[in-house]
Amino acid sequence: MTKATPVETNDGFDCFRRLIQQLCEERCEVAAERLDTLLNHMAWTTGNELIGELGLAIRDFQRSRPTLSYSLRNTLKECKKKVRDACGPLFFW
């Protein structure tokens, strides 16, 4: 994963960048790498398609690691809201 990726931009994906950074800090490299690949190294047809894929990656991570730090839980909550806003309330968590 590239360490030079800015955390704050104006493209609407900042919460996901913060999540990637926090996952790295909490030694969750596999989840961070998956999110980084989706966000920074793949081409997408639409932003909603990207957000949906990020949502699936978040869901998989949460299922694999039920105990999370307070800070990570808050960032995940923010990202999940973004996914829900883009994909609708029926997105499966």
Would you kindly provide a brief summary of this structure?
The protein is built from 4 helices and no strands. With 93 residues, it is mostly helical.
Indicate the topology:
Elements: H1 14-25, H2 29-40, H3 47-64, H4 70-87
Structure description:
This protein is an all-alpha fold. The protein has one domain (14-87). The protein has helices at residues 14-25, 29-40, 47-64, 70-87. Helix 1 (14-25) runs antiparallel to helix 4 and helix 3 (47-64) packs antiparallel against helix 4. The radius of gyration is 12 Å and the shape is globular. It starts with 13 loop residues before the first helix and ends in a 6-residue tail after the last helix.
Descriptive key words:
single chain, 93 residues, mainly alpha, globular
What is the chain-wise order of helices and strands? HHHH
Globular, elongated, flat, extended or rod-shaped: what is the shape?
globular
Q: Provide the domain count.
A: 1
On the 0-100 scale, what is the average pLDDT? 89
